[in-house]
Design brief:
Pfam families: DNA_gyraseA_C, DNA_topoisoIV. By secondary structure, this protein is α+β, with helices and mostly antiparallel strands. Helices cover 32% and strands 23% of the residues. The radius of gyration is 44 Å and the shape is elongated.
């Protein structure tokens, strides 16, 4: 026996390629024409062959699986049954092909019952996939053991590949096609039939708007689906449909009514519960599944004090309530795997339908001609009935009779006009005479006597005329491609009428992040931060304006050892930067902060930000809502030890969830403030002991890195520290020009309308008025004053500075100092949690080194620790007593006015600049 040596490398390569192609072509990838893999095609064909139609009784699934496995698909009963089960699941298929009875699984991942318990039959939609298969519309091939034939493709009447989608993993390639809306696809096919030059963009914009999942849900944005439609690859972001309801008094809940496609509902709920247990999502009080036969309903009950929109945002981020579908539109096209775009798939289907209709028409034409051929013979016999009867009676046997009928020529009669349609060029009518074929002679001999009655004779003639019309129609279809395409279009429209349903998946234009923010109402919030790291936001409308010198109201409930450290007003969409004691920076938007009441203490920032043990937030800074507006701006840091550093703002706009390094700090130092600035601005530092310094931003070079300590901004005395930093407008004026303007401006403020700015032109005065800012300084004892920015001369960086406000025994040390405008309001907070809101316009303008007037009557033993400024939101400025508080009596009101008058006289009598 001869044994030929073979290279193992060549044999492995050849064998593996054969195996790979077998998996690709015969198992894993669908055909672009009918959208089916071989196992699905064999299931439907076997059911059709056995007569398991939609209008007939159900049959045991085990029987169907047995037929498929025995005749066509010898790969195991479980594989066949799993494929059949999926075709019956209305949450997996956009247009189910199997009508199942029994347990066929659920969205919770429950497995179907065993095949011996369930029953099934073809769905009506499946009949339109397999219709006309017996009219030679598709090719057949031998089954696995050459005992019967099976179709290589089904003559699908709608683009099933896109309607129901497909998924499969082959060798070296995979497919993942989402389901689409049948009505949209048929509209697109009709449009391509009318105009084959339509582009993919035309199809997307006018007809196929995106996938349409059987479970509904929402598709976010069009970037991914447009990529998929154009290239065959893309990622579609989808999320469940939710709404927020009030389930009972003061208790809100998120109701999930639709979940993303192919998401296991039970596993999703389990994942949510795990995140709540691990405290990664807070604010969920209860979680339950109330789904039933009517649809999905998952209730996420929200705890009091938590905002449902924030919880919903977290569910989208951390759970499968939002997921993505990776589109990979790979299918077999003419036996070869091909990555196709939307137009290519639809065109391949249209070409296939054109071939199917052509082959069906040819088949029906042949059948019609065969039937007409027989009827033509009967019509000739009826036309010559006496001669035919006489010939048959004289014939000794049937064979002789048949031969004599074929040899003789008969009067054609009414058959003559139809001869051209009967496809019989060898038997033309000559001088009205017609010669019968063997088939016609045989049918005449088998003719029953009742067909010779007058009514039956007329019926034969009528049938023959009708067949003539049918044959003419078939021939016209085959002669005219336009007519064939019109027929295809009408059949597609009929499919849409029968099976099209409204779109289930909504497509939203906005991408995820923007879409979530659209759920958050734009609202001004008072953000309050305590020294121990608690933060909250309270609607600004909660606070009402009072006149200066009022008693204030409770601004925050704090622990005995805790004090309110910072308070500011920001929009819910404002991004915030959180600078920590370790020199890290974190980013979060205001709407993500916990919503509270004026009396609530808020939530620990350690639960909001990924802080290390012992790390706390020292500075919270606002960014412009549109960060592109500050693309040319810089950021200035200041520390308690007097250090400053300047960086580009772009170094801090892209902050990930785990934060990034902001600034290197020496031991014992802390970050005081961080502000946005430009090179034309000035830096204004104030100290606890009443000193201040003003220098140009350009005196601080731009640092390339973030891991540095910066340079000296002010030289501090012993026991002194920087308590605030502000950014002022630039403007280079000489000392004489500042003094001249101040004399002029102070005289005008005192009511002298005839004052003249000596030494200054009108243009200079106007320019200085436009650039003048007023600096509000507030002491720990509640005193304060406004001073013109021209009172503070510009010096070099690193000096000792000048006096800012008198720090007497009455005033105490400085709590805050920053620029304000006439229409602004301020909120002052004490370390005991008392808060007052008052208008800046009620605070008089005074010299730089004065004691100021009473702004806040603080309780004994308390000190002002935080002062925040914001724009007046429309209050009339009148003192309004809070609900539940008594309005001051007339005597008390007179006393307050007297106190304010005394404060004003006291402030005016204070000394000038030291």
């Amino acid at each position: 026996m001869d044994i030929a040596p073979v290279s193992i490398e060549d044999e492995m390569r050849s064998s593996y390629l054969d195996y790979a192609m077998s998996v690709i072509v015969s198992r894993a990838l669908p055909d672009v024409r009918d959208g089916l893999k071989p196992v699905h095609r064999r299931i439907l064909y076997a059911m059709k062959e056995s007569g398991y139609d939609y209008n007939k009784p159900y049959r045991k699934s085990a029987r169907i699986v047995g037929d498929v496995m025995g005749k066509y698909h010898p790969h195991g009963d479980s594989a066949i049954y799993d494929a059949m089960v999926r075709m019956a699941q209305n949450f997996s298929m956009r247009l189910p092909l199997i009508d199942g009875q029994g347990n066929f699984g659920s969205m919770d991942g429950d497995p179907p019952a065993a095949m011996r318990y369930t029953e099934a039959r073809m769905d009506k939609s499946a009949h339109n996939l397999i219709a006309d298969i017996d009219k030679e519309t598709v090719d057949f091939k031998a089954n696995y053991d050459d005992t019967t034939l099976e179709p290589s493709v089904l003559p699908a009447q709608y683009p099933n590949l896109l309607v129901n989608g497909a998924g499969g993993i082959a060798v070296g390639m995979a497919t993942n096609i989402p389901p689409h809306n049948l009505g949209e696809l048929i509209d697109a096919c009709c449009a391509l039939i009318d105009d084959s030059n339509l582009s993919v963009d035309d199809l997307i914009n006018d007809y196929v708007f995106g996938p349409d999942f059987p479970t509904g849900g929402i598709i976010l944005g069009q970037t991914g689906l447009r990529s998929a439609f154009h290239t065959g690859r893309g990622s579609v972001v989808m999320r469940g449909r939710t709404n927020i309801e009030e389930i009972r008094k003061d208790r809100m809940a998120i109701i999930i009514t639709e979940i993303p496609y192919q998401v296991n509902k039970a596993r999703m709920i389990e994942n949510m519960a795990g995140l709540v247990r691990d405290k990664k999502i807070e604010g969920i009080g209860d979680l339950r599944d109330e789904s039933d036969r009517q649809g999905v309903r998952v209730v996420v009950e929200i705890k009091k004090g938590h905002q449902p929109e924030i919880v919903l945002n977290q569910l989208f981020k951390f759970t499968p309530l939002q997921t993505s579908f990776g589109v990979n539109m790979l299918a077999l096209n003419k036996g070869r795997p091909e990555l196709m775009n939307l137009k290519q798939i639809l065109q391949a289907f249209i070409e296939f339908r054109e071939e199917v209709i052509t082959r069906r028409t040819i088949f029906e034409l042949g059948k019609a001609r065969d039937k007409a051929h027989v009827l033509a013979g009967l019509a000739v016999a009826v036309e010559n009935i006496d001669e035919v009867i006489e010939l048959i009676r004289a014939a000794p046997d049937p064979q002789t009779a048949r031969s004599q009928l074929m040899e003789r020529k008969w009067r054609a009669g009414q058959v003559e006009p139809l001869i051209e349609l009967l496809d019989e060029p060898d038997r033309q009518v000559v001088e009205g005479m017609y010669q019968l074929s063997e088939t016609q002679a045989k049918s005449i001999l088998e003719l029953r006597l009742h067909r010779l009655t007058g009514l039956e004779r007329e019926k034969i003639a009528g049938d023959l005329r009708e067949l003539g019309v049918e044959i003419e129609e078939y021939l016209s279809i085959l002669r005219s491609r336009e007519k064939l395409m019109t027929l295809m279009r009408n059949e597609l429209v009929d499919m849409r009428t029968q099976f099209a349903t409204p779109r289930r998946s909504e497509i939203q234009e906005a991408e995820f992040e923007h879409d979530i923010e659209d759920l958050i109402q734009r609202e001004d919030m008072v953000v309050t931060v305590t020294s121990s790291g608690y933060i909250k936001r309270v609607p600004l409308d909660t606070y009402r304006a009072q006149r200066r010198g009022g008693k204030g109201r409770s601004g925050m409930s704090t622990k005995d050892e805790d004090i309110v450290e910072n308070v500011f007003v920001a929009n819910t969409h404002t991004p915030l930067l959180f600078f920590s004691s370790n020199g890290m920076v974190y980013k979060m938007k205001v709407y993500r902060l916990p919503l509270g009441t004026p009396q609530s203490k808020g939530k620990a920032m350690v639960n909001l930000l990924p802080l290390d043990e012992g790390e706390n937030i020292s500075t919270v800074m606002e960014l412009p809502e549109d960060e592109s507006e500050a693309k040319d701006m810089h950021i200035m840091f200041s520390t308690a030890s007097g250090g400053v550093r300047r960086n580009l703002l772009s170094d801090f706009t892209n902050v990930k969830a785990n934060g990034k390094i902001a600034m290197k700090l020496d031991d014992g130092d802390s970050m005081v403030a961080v502000s946005i600035c430009t090179p034309d601005d000035h830096v204004f530092l104030t100290t606890h002991n009443g000193q201040c310094i003003r220098f140009s931003v350009e005196d601080v070079r731009v640092f390339a890195g973030r891991n540095s300590t910066g340079v000296r901004g002010i030289r501090l005395a012993d026991e002194d520290r920087v308590i605030s930093m502000s950014i002022l407008n630039g403007g280079k004026w000489t000392a004489d020009e500042r003094d001249a303007y101040l004399r002029y401006a102070n005289a005008k403020r005192r009511g002298d309308e005839d004052v003249v700015a000596e030494g200054l032109s009108e243009e200079q005065v106007a320019e200085m008025e436009a650039s003048e800012e007023f600096l509000l300084s507030v002491t720990e004892s509640g005193y304060g004053k406004r001073s013109s920015s021209f009172e503070y001369r510009t010096t070099g960086r690193g000096g000792k500075g000048i006096a800012n406000i008198e720090t007497s025994e009455r005033n105490g040390n400085v709590a805050a100092s920053f620029p304000v405008e006439e229409e602004d309001e301020i909120i002052m907070v004490t370390d005991g949690g008392q808060l007052i809101r008052t208008g800046v316009g009620q605070i008089r303008i005074a010299g730089r080194k004065t004691q100021g007037v009473t702004l806040f009557r603080v309780a004994e033993g308390e000190s002002v620790v935080s002062v925040s400024c914001f724009r007046d939101m429309g209050d009339d400025g009148e003192e309004i007593s809070e609900e539940g508080e008594e309005s001051p009596s007339g005597e008390e009101e007179n006393q307050q006015q007297a106190d304010q008058s005394a404060d004003q006289q006291e402030g005016e009598s204070e000394g000038a600049e030291g």
